[in-house]
Amino acid sequence: MKICWTPITGVISLCPQHLVRSKPSVLSEAAPTGPMLANLYLQGRLKLDELVSAKISLDQINDGFAAMQAGTVARSVVVF
Predict the structure, then answer these.
(1) Chain CA centroid to CA 5, Å
(2) What is the CA radius of gyration of the chain?
(3) Is 79 helix (H, G, I), strand (E, B) or coil?
(4) In the chain, N or C terminus with fewer CB closer than 10 Å?
(5) Are 79 and 61 spatial neighbours (Cβ–Cβ below 8 Å)?
(6) Domain ranges within the chain, ordered by starting residue
């Protein structure tokens, strides 16, 4: 089974039987854990801040979705 990114207007076809019957791949077994990612971030080795396009408040959520659909931001973080 392959999982990949698709445009927001794209369609993903997935057979539910593959989710149940397929064996985990090496990639999924080697995926980093939450604590591992947190430690990398705290060490400055995982640059998450650079991935955030905008910080918005909860009352700006509709504007955030509109900006994402327009392509003016890649990722917004809701701060509340």
Answers:
(1) 10
(2) 17
(3) strand
(4) C
(5) no
(6) 16-79
